[in-house]
């Protein structure tokens, strides 16, 4: 105690809160709960919305509008059902079932499956390898795009979006971002292996069976769920550039164009590589570095 996260259905909120929260708070008030546990039984509480029948009414056997998940899985597949349930609307809202939309989720997964025809062992960031190695393959991409550069930029934006949306339980918008990425991937002649791998990692929570199958198709022997969650590169997702003023002992000596919100260590590294500015630091001891994000760097020498 306290529990990290309590999630319950909206139709059970009253009784669930009675025994899980208010009884706990009563015990807290009379001193039966250790003070170090705090007055709340859980750190976070959410209530998921109810899935209604196709007519917008609550499902019941008497109305004959109950959706049998076993039949849905048999016709559309477990992943399609999983994706549809998370894509149909906000997590905490009641939403009516729509079989046509379920078909749309299945078609999305079929498009993902067809991407395997474009998968290649080539990499956008090939490692040094011996002659004839697969890692030295030339990656062919459609001429109308920027190739790996444009795909990487969108991929990392998607990683950021999906990561944040999962934490915020905005599963529908996370899946929407994945769909946008797939639209662009379909335009490519070939998809680099490292691009496909990261895409599958962020798809896996929503379509685990499909992601696992395609993961194995890339030559992996261990489960995709043993892999670490991918991290996004801030430099790839930030399109906006700013002019960073460079000062030496408080006097402006130039400027450097960098991406917005660049970290101090990276910005200082770029300054030291810039010939026009680095000459002011040559053979000088830097006693202090003052960094104001998106504004300036002042070297005290």
Automatic annotation (TrEMBL):
Pfam family, one: tRNA-synt_1
Entry's Gene Ontology cellular component terms: cytosol
Gene Ontology terms: biological process: leucyl-tRNA aminoacylation
Keywords tagged on the record: Aminoacyl-tRNA synthetase, ATP-binding, Ligase, Nucleotide-binding, Protein biosynthesis
Boundaries of every Methionyl/Valyl/Leucyl/Isoleucyl-tRNA synthetase anticodon-binding domain copy: 152-261
Enzyme Commission identifier(s): 6.1.1.4
Catalyses which reaction(s): tRNA(Leu) + L-leucine + ATP = L-leucyl-tRNA(Leu) + AMP + diphosphate
Protein name: leucine--tRNA ligase
Organism: bacterium (Candidatus Gribaldobacteria) CG10_big_fil_rev_8_21_14_0_10_41_12
């Amino acid at each position: 105690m306290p529990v990290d996260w309590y999630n319950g259905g909206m139709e059970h909120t009253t009784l669930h809160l009675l025994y899980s929260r208010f009884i706990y708070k009563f015990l807290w008030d009379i001193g039966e709960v250790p003070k170090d546990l705090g007055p709340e039984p859980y750190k976070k509480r959410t209530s998921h919305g109810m899935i209604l029948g196709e007519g917008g009414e609550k499902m019941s056997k008497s109305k004959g509008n109950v959706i049998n998940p076993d039949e849905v899985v048999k016709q559309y597949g477990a992943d399609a059902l999983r994706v549809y349930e998370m894509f149909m609307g906000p997590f905490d809202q009641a939403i009516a079932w729509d079989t046509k939309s379920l078909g749309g989720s299945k078609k999305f997964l079929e498009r993902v499956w067809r991407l395997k025809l474009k998968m290649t062992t080539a990499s956008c960031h090939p490692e040094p390898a011996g002659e004839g190695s697969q890692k030295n393959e030339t990656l062919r991409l459609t001429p109308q795009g920027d190739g790996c550069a444009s795909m990487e930029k969108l991929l990392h934006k998607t990683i950021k979006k999906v990561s944040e949306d999962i934490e915020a339980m905005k599963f529908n918008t996370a899946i929407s971002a994945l769909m946008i990425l797939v639209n662009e991937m379909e335009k490519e002649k070939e998809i680099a292996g490292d691009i496909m791998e990261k895409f599958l990692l962020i798809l896996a929570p929503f379509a685990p069976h499909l992601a696992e199958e395609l993961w194995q198709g890339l030559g992996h022997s261990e489960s995709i769920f043993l892999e670490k969650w991918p991290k996004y590169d801030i430099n790839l997702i930030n399109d906006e550039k700013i002019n960073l003023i460079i000062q030496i002992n408080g006097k402006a000596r130039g400027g450097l164009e960098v991406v917005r919100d660049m970290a101090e260590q990276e910005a200082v590294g770029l300054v030291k590589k810039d010939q026009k500015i680095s000459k002011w630091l040559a053979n000088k001891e830097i006693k202090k570095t003052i960094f104001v994000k998106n504004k300036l760097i002042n070297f005290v020498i």
